[in-house]
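subagent[fold] <- orchestrator: predict structure for attached chain, return tokens only, no commentary.
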Amino acid sequence: MMSALPHFTGLKDVEAVERQPIEAYMAGDTLPAILAASADAYAVQPAYRFYDANDLSAPAETFTYSALYRNVRAASALFRSLGVGRTDVVAYLLPGLLQTVEIVLAGAEAGIVMPINPFLEPGTIAAMLTRVNARVLCIEGPTSEEGTYRKLSAIRDLAPCIEHILIVGEDGDADGGDRYETGRDRFLDADHTDAPLPARTDIAAYFHTGGTTGAPKIAPLTHFNLAAMSFIAAFGGGIRTGDVMPCGMPLFHVGGLVMGAFAPLAYGATIVQLTRRGYRQPGLLDAFWEIVAREKAAILVGPPTIVIEATQRFRDDLDLSSVRSWISSAAALPAEAHRRFTDRTGIPVKEAWGLTEATLVLTFTPAEGPSKPGAVGVRMPFCEVDIAELSPDGEILRRLPQGEAGVIIGRSSCVFPGYLDPAANEGVLLADGWLNTGDIGLIDPDGYVEITGRAKDMINRGGHNIDPKTIEDALMAHPDVALAAAVARPDPRVGEVPIAFVAAQPGTTPDPDEVLAFAAARIDERAAIPKTVIVLPALPLTGVGKVHKPTLRHEAARLAVAEVVGLAPERLTAKDGTGGRTRIAVAPDTPADLRDTVKAMLDALGLEFEDHSQAQDSVST
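subagent[fold] -> orchestrator:
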């Protein structure tokens, strides 16, 4: 077990670390091995503190490393008693409860753990459970603030593979399952000496990716993937023994679990769980900086949307001298938001970048080195990052020179073994172990990676690709703009044109035309100037705090069709269609000739038409 991680000031430290094998730095090569080593080394040290939303003035519960280890071993024994073996799945639909981290670690010890986003619809959840033949489901009870328990009946009906339901976090019994804590506590004093443990090559977890359009893809990660990433992420983030790290991220996502559990626990840090709902908890961000000061937190972690909100709520009357950095990930942080945060707080932002398929990070801004607004850091130890031109079927045609933008590809021992559906691996797993990240970017002369966009987010205007980040950066420079997103609006002449949505800074009411003129003066490429700017109270976000661009693309399509055919926008609706396309429906009482006009326009734009007229006709007759 490492007593201290190497310093990280830049690429030279990355190269120095690589002079030894990665195993020399790892606390263990499986998750159970890491937890056992940490329980031995940091037994009475606090591993985990939990804040209850009803009282943010002090933590409600504290667990030492030895107490957490005892609970995990007992929970693992409980899962085995329910028939869970090495390839069986323990799934959970849980927020950041006291018990969530122990369930993750115990599920990975006994079998394969599968975190699932509790905000998904029952049919999608059940389809994933069925796909992996899950045997055990851990779920919140009827007091759930998110309403997850109300989905249980439908999930059970649609996923008969589930043999055992464990209700988590309820003081009393709940219909539909057995109380998790009662089952776990039966094994607290059991002898676990002969309990089977996983090998480094065994699958530890199934994570789902996507799911906003179509069925989510399921990505398996091995124990070695997660154990190695625990070192890589801890090194990148500059985690030290005794550090306090607040966690407000969702614990169904690999980022939340690596930075909110695995990496801190591997190296003796203390996790502070910011209520069961994390950053989604109403009122939490109002109390955030006070909690940071009280806990003497060292490292803060949150996506760009939370960086922006934390900037707005900053408290300069508090002693925040313990804070060394804010780690921003999940999406690229706009350069202007980066500068605003550091100018306001004095805290450096350390951007990280990666993806589930790489077990989280491939790059990190040096913890003790310079931050660069607009860049996401340098490659991590034992990780390779390059820029390439790819063919449509994923063949690497050529490597691009420094400073030229292209598809970012990565390679490391943390790259996943491939989706459960082999067909989904086409164009993702490339030759010689390279991974197509789907991001567009470049590498600057200092080795820093700049993300310029997502391949699927590029706006194709008459065959000319427009990077939405160019537009978003110009909009973010406006003092009244808190967050911006540019998407493609269908256009009958050139295919797509850019359109922008912005959320205002608190207390401001930006004029859309003035914001557009401001941005236009900062966009060098005339074709990239958005056709219009729409001010919204807030931009739609995913469960991990990214701007949900499919929702904005749907809205852009709805507005475009309304304008072209002369319909009031409220008479049109837009939603997910097949293959990621937008499906448009008109109000059922729309005249037949106008419906035909809309359908013809949608065909020309490559959009789908949903006909509600038959239902209306049958009602009329």
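orchestrator: received. Logging for downstream: Residues 65-81 form the longest helix (17 residues). The chain is about 30% helix and 25% strand.
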